[in-house]
Design brief:
Length: about 325
């Protein structure tokens, strides 16, 4: 079965073809980052309009690149939510109409399920059951993944998502949008810091998390350095290091608890923040100490992309889920 995947929940337009026998056939992505950068964040209306323009272009490009004809496609999977309502609506309407025009089923999939399954696009995929740490710009959660569609949330952030904390902290440091990866780059340019920030909620039992207090601590530290006229490049790097270290340590402690709680020996990390090098290193060390294995996707499949949606759709259809005729998007949708 050949599935066309369409992702349009935020500021990336992604399309991909996934073959259930041969794996990923191809994918293309357009990032709207440049367009939103001058506003310091995603402008929902601009995002929707651009998805309308880019979707047909990217699909034609993908079909050309992979020598695929429309009649080879057996199903269309699209992000049904969560996300920006207009952006999700564009993808859902386009996918449903496109599927109808070529006479194949259309299936709406959960964006976070796409992230969760993305590491399965790699040559050595994780096997069920596993613990998944989903860390993106909108969500931070630990999930006990027993099989496709069998997800139990073990804990989640009670306030900011980890990616959101990265982006907001980067903004406070004067870095351009989207600041998360830039902040991480700064952090990587030093290997020590005079700043130690709190590791939120590690003293409390359970697997819930919180990142807004950490953000406030960083804000106070920046304020103090600015007042003392010591907020220079080196100081910026050390603050970035201290912040990243606090986030990664907190996530590592919570992941360790999740492995102990479930007894699983596999940890999967997914979502934009799973591209973070320090997080991968720190979780790798923790997993080694627990004789567990760590899996993640290549960086381009950590952030939003069409391949993860094509894969999630293919696995859902294989598991017997039927398609939907109507367009029913879900801007908020628990996994
Ligand atoms: O999964 P994603 O592309 O979109 C959502 O579904 O939210 O995640 C985007 C988030 C942004 O907050 C971005 O700053 C963060 O992932 N991110 C990173 C890195 N790469 C992306 N955060 C820290 N380190 C990175 N290397
Ligand atoms: Zn995402």
């Amino acid at each position: 079965m050949l599935v066309l995947g369409i992702e349009s929940s935020c500021d990336e337009t992604g399309v991909a073809l996934y073959d259930t026998d041969n794996g990923l056939v191809g994918h293309t992505l357009f990032s709207q980052i440049k367009m939103h950068a001058e506003f310091g964040g995603v402008v929902p209306e601009l995002a929707s309009r651009d998805h309308i323009i880019k979707l047909p272009q990217l699909i034609n490009q993908l079909l050309d690149q992979t020598n695929t004809s429309k009649k080879d496609i057996d199903a269309v999977a699209y992000t049904q939510g969560p996300g920006l309502i207009g952006a999700v609506m564009v993808g859902a309407c386009f996918a449903t109409a496109f599927a109808k025009s070529i006479g194949v089923p259309a299936l709406g999939v959960h964006h976070m399920e796409g992230h969760l399954l993305a590491p399965m696009l790699e040559d050595t995929p994780p096997e069920f059951p596993f613990v998944a740490l989903l860390v993106s710009g909108g969500h931070t959660m630990l999930v006990d993944v027993k099989a496709i569609g069998q997800y139990e949330i073990l804990g989640e952030s009670l306030d900011d998502a980890a990616g959101e904390a990265f982006d907001k902290t980067a903004k406070m440091m004067g870095l351009p949008y989207p600041g998360g990866p830039l902040l991480s780059k700064l952090a990587q340019s030093v290997d020590a810091s005079r700043f130690t920030f709190p590791r939120p909620m590690i003293d409390r039992p359970g697997m819930d998390m919180s990142f807004s207090g950490l953000k406030t601590s960083v804000r106070n530290a920046i304020k103090k350095e600015v007042e003392n006229e010591t907020f220079d490049e080196q100081c910026q790097k050390e603050i970035a290091f201290g912040f990243e270290h606090a986030v990664c340590s907190t996530l590592s402690i919570k992941c360790k608890r999740a492995l102990e709680h479930t007894g699983h020996k596999t940890l999967v990390i997914a979502g934009g923040v799973s591209a973070n090098v320090r997080l991968r290193e720190q979780l790798g060390t923790m997993c080694q100490s627990k004789r567990s294995k760590l899996f993640y996707a290549r960086p381009e499949f950590c952030t939003d992309n069409g391949a993860m949606i094509a894969l999630a759709g293919a696995l859902r259809l294989n598991a017997g889920q039927s398609s939907t005729q109507s367009v029913d998007v879900k801007p908020r949708w628990p996994i």
